Structure formats: structure tokens, C-alpha cells
Amino acid sequence: MTSRERDVTATPPQPCTPFAPCAHHRSPSLPPGPTNAPGRPSDERHGRRTPAASAGAGRVPGRVSAGSRSGTPARDALALLALPLVAALVLPAAFAGGGTRRWFGGRSEGQRAEAQAAKDAAAAAFYELDTAQRDLRFSIETIAAVDDSPAARRAIADFEALGRRIDEASHRYIQAVDAHDLDRVDLEASAAARARTELTTARDELAGVKQELDRFGASLGPLLGKAETQLARLAPAVERARQALLAASNALDGVRTSGLKADDLAARLAALAPELTKLNQGAGRHGVAPTLERAERVAREAETVRTQAERLPERAAEIDHRLVSLRTRAQALTTRAGQVEPVLSELRRRFTVACWQDLQQVPEQAAESVRQAELKLKEAQAAREAQRWPDATSLLSTVRALLNTTDEAVSAAGDRLRRLNAVQKDPQQEIERTRFAIRDAQRLAMAGRTTPDPRHARPLDESVARLDRAVTTLEGRHPDYWRFLTETEAVRQTVARVVAQIREERGAGAS
Prior knowledge:
- This is Septation ring formation regulator EzrA.
- The chain has 511 residues and is mainly alpha-helical.
- It folds into four domains: 3-96, no CATH class; 107-219, no CATH class; 278-424, Butyryl-CoA Dehydrogenase, subunit A, domain 3 (Up-down Bundle), CATH 1.20.140; 426-510.
- Helices cover 76% and strands 0% of the residues.
- It has 17 helices and no strands.
- It has helices spanning 3-10, 51-55, 72-96, 107-146, 150-179, 189-219, 221-257, 263-270, 273-281, 283-286, 288-337, 340-350, 362-385, 389-425, 427-446, 454-472, 481-510.
- Helix 14 packs across helix 15 (427-446).
- The longest helix is centred in the middle third of the chain and has 50 residues, at 288-337.
- The radius of gyration is 61 Å and the shape is elongated.
């Protein structure tokens, strides 16, 4: 047995499979491992393995050893049976390209990229429109909170109509996005083109609505400026109201420390507490305009309370001083009222009844007025001790009015006697005084004129005649001097009215 025969006997032939090629099939003239035909690049360099390469790995086509010819039919049948399994394992990887590459390309990929760009542009337009709408909504809410004018209501209605336009455009954009899956592997070029068209249309519509929204926002300038001005006034006004209330409260505390009660001021300040609660609740609940008006009113009333509280010690001292002064005056009037009777007695003795008859009741009236004044003074003193400052002030005013009336009545008797004495002694002085007033008015009426205005000349002529008649009353044994004095006084008043009329007319003509 030769050495070759021994080798064949010792190593029985093994069946060759596509996964385990036979070693004795390899040509002794080639190196181990797979060999490619000359001039053909290996598919494995590009990450792909063809079915033929996988099945015939380790063999050189066209070169088969002599020992393999006897098993060719069985071996081929086995290889054909295993081929589908190999293809099932190899083909997915071959088509996936290692999970990173697709086999399709060309026009489909270009359409996909354009559609994706259109989608991104539409998304940017949607975001810009949404942002602009949110910003403009803040402006509309500001206007609505402050302004209730027809222009403001019309702006709010226009914004709501634009909101519906925006909702429609956004809905169509979302529909276009949901209708096309641009990440699909099998996306066709026609589908990508249709997606690009619809997304571009959606983007254009969104941009158009955005332009309308921008124009509408620009038209809101005056309304928004007015609303922002009121809002800018709101916070300082509320703060001023709070500070005014605090200052009034502190002033009342200071007054109470000095021993004064100031109950009326405390009640007025307490009445402002509900208004402060509403201010603290804010304009969002009660409205900007009502809150602004409330803050100004609270600040004004609290400032009044503070001022009166700070003046309260001075007011108390003033009331004390008035009590003393009016009491002293009442006592003096009591003394003067007692002197009226002697004056009346002289008037009765020297002059006619018409000269003193109207003064007969002066003593009794003066005494009664002084008595009422003293009663009111006691009531005012009690109100001062109870620190009822408004009541004390009112009572003191009543006392002052009573004393003024009494003072005039008491003075009238003495003044009557003085004037009657003067005219009895020299009536010509009163006559000349009245004639001078008439002549002065006549010169003024003729200034710059050749003839006087009848409206001025007539009352002046009547005044001359009236004075002449008054002078005739002085004739006789017992002249009515008081009637003479009242007539001359009435003439002077008439003349004074004519002079005032002339000057007023000439002043109006000069202007």
C-alpha cells in the first residue's frame, strides 16, 4: 500500500457544505482563504455579500480537485436545499446596508428633502403666528380691563374674528402635517411632492394671517397707550391711598395721646375700611377704572381726616378762645342794651314820632337775643367738654349771629340820634352832599357826547326833582328829619347805579 493510499484510508472523506467547504477541494497552487477572480473587486469591501459569494466562499470557480468529481450530484442537491436559508440570513443585511444606507435614492430623496424643508418652514410660521397672537392677547386684555369705549369694544370683536381665522389656518396646517409621514422608508416621490405642496400652502396661509395680525396690532396704538397710561396711574394711586390711610391713623393715635377723643374722625376713618379691602383685592376683580376712582377718593378722604386730626388740638384751643370771647361780648351787649332806653327817651322828646317809632322794640329784642346767646354758650361749653367738636362749632356760630343782630339793633338807636342831631343842626351839608353826587353823574353822562343818553338822563333828572321835594319837607315847625335823611340816601343810591351802568357800557365798548 502506497503512502497515498494510506492517507486516503486513514482520513475518510467528509461531506462538503456551504458552511464548511472541503479542504481537499482547495487547489494546492493557491493560498488558503477566499480568492476573487482577477479584475472583480470584492463585494465585502462595500459592506455587502451576495448570495453567490456566501455559498461559494473558499472555492475558486473553474478549479475543482479530482477527488471531488465523484460526489458532485449529492453535493449540489445539498447546496440547493441550504440556499434559501442562507439567503434569508444574508439578504436583510444586504438591503439594509449595515443599518445606515438605503438602496433607493435619486428623485425620491430630493422630493423628501423639499417636503421636509416645507414642513420646517410651516412649523416656523406656525410658531411665529402663535407667539404674535399671545403677545397681542395681552394687549387686548389690557385694553378690555381699562377701556369700555365703543372703539375698545370694536377692537376686542376684531381680535376675536382674527382668532377664528388663526384657528382655521392652524387647523389646516396640523392636518397637512398629520397627513404625511415624511420618515416612511417607502415614501414615494409623488407623495413627497404632494406633502410639499400642502405644507407650502399651509405656510403661506399662516404667514398671511400673521400679516393681518401685525396690521391689527399696529392699529391698537392709541387704545393701548391710553390703557397703559391708566395702568401706570393705578399702582401709584393705590399706594397713595394706603399711605394716606396710614397717615390718618397715625394722626388719630397722636391726638388720642394728647387726651382728645376725636370720635367723629375715627368713625370717618373706619368707614374707609371696606374701600381699602376692595383696593387690596385688586383691579382684576373690580376693574381698573373703578379701582382708580376708588383709590383717589380714599386718598382724598383720608387726607382730610389726617388734616383735621392734626388741627384738632389747635381747633380745641380756638373753641376755648371763642367761648371766652363770645361770653364777654354777650355781657357787653347786655350793658349796651340797657342804654337804649335813655336814647329812645331823647328821641321822643326832640323829634317827631316817625323819627323813632321803628326803634321802640329794640330794648326788649336786645335783651331776648342776649338771653338766647347765653343759653347757646352753655350748650357749646357742654359740647366742648364732651369733645363733640362739630356741635360746639355750630353752637358758637349761632351765638355769634345772635350777638351780631343785637349789636346792630343797639347801635341803630345811638346812630339814629347822632344823624338826626347832625341834620337838625345843619341840613345844608346833607343837601350839598347829594347835589354833588348828582352833578358828578351828569358830567360823566355827557362826557364825549353832545346830548345825554335818555337811559341815563331820565333817572338823573328824577333824582334832582326828588331831592328838591325832600328839601321842602324841612319846612315847618316840626320837620321830619328822618324822612329827609332816607330820601337823600335813596337819591344817592339811584345816582350810584346810573354811574355804574355808564362805566360798564363804556368798558364793554372799549374791549
